[in-house]
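Quick one before lunch.
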Amino acid sequence: MTVPVLQVRDLTVTYRLRGQRGRAADGVSFDLHAGERLGIVGESGSGKSTLALALMRLHKPPTRIESGTAMLGGVDLLKLEGEALRRFRWSQISMIPQGAMNSLNPVMRIGVLMGDAIRAHERGWNRERIRARVIETLESVGLNRTVADLYPHELSGGMKQRVCIALAIILKPKLIVADEPTSALDVVVQRKVIETLKEVQKEIGAALIMIGHDMGLMAQSVDRLAVMYAGKLVENAPIRGFFRRPLHPYSQLLISSLPTPDEVREMKGIPGAQPSLFALPTGCAFHPRCPAAQAECSVEVPTSRRIAPERDVACHLANEETASA
Ligand code: SF4
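Model of the iron/sulfur cluster complex:
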């Protein structure tokens, strides 16, 4: 196995509210290889977006990175500051944020906007070289070169989202973090945009972290799936194994809440609601909602363990036997 391009270890991100401190990401660890796509799912407030913002170092007070490391290409991006961080961001790690298409500056032509991103990192490039990279990148995401001369309001939602992908890959980073990259688009456009994202990510050999709610879209888009609950990564598994046999009870409920085309069955929701990060239940945070909870679950916090190749689960009941059953 090759060395992972990204190694996140024990990443803990907290935020304070009225004198209390909650752990929005709690001891999160995972690896990601070049060209690999990792989906991160979970209910709202589970810590997915906090994790993405922390990796980009775009979190704002009262959110704070408490501890951990995130090595990207041998550099701990959690320790970068000032100019070093500015240069690293976008050239090594880029982001397609939530609602990205609404973040395009309405008074700048697309080509100027993209050119500015290049100029901020590549000071020696002349106008022709910048223009050539802008056109090449626009075409790589399925847009005509004439888009460079248009303003954002002249583009459809799908085109704007493609521009956001183009901005994220324009400096060929090692890692792209996409936070709900298609949530504002209709289903047909959504699929096309995701296909484009996958193609360009593969082409430049970048690793991709995709955050979202849509399990169906994830199933078709990523190589691995990580599930977050109340700030913790509770399962991390290759996509096929995950859908064939989810091992964490929360993952099982997430999958059983999905409709299937071959079987007409009652849709099941997940009872209860995710707890407040400021008042987590004792033991396993999922125990008040877990249909498999045992006595120890309300007392002991389960730690994430490797129970099968490339498969980590944080549940007292998960072990090698349940993984191979
Ligand atoms: Fe359920 Fe217990 Fe596993 Fe938590 S540790 S998911 S409560 S069985």
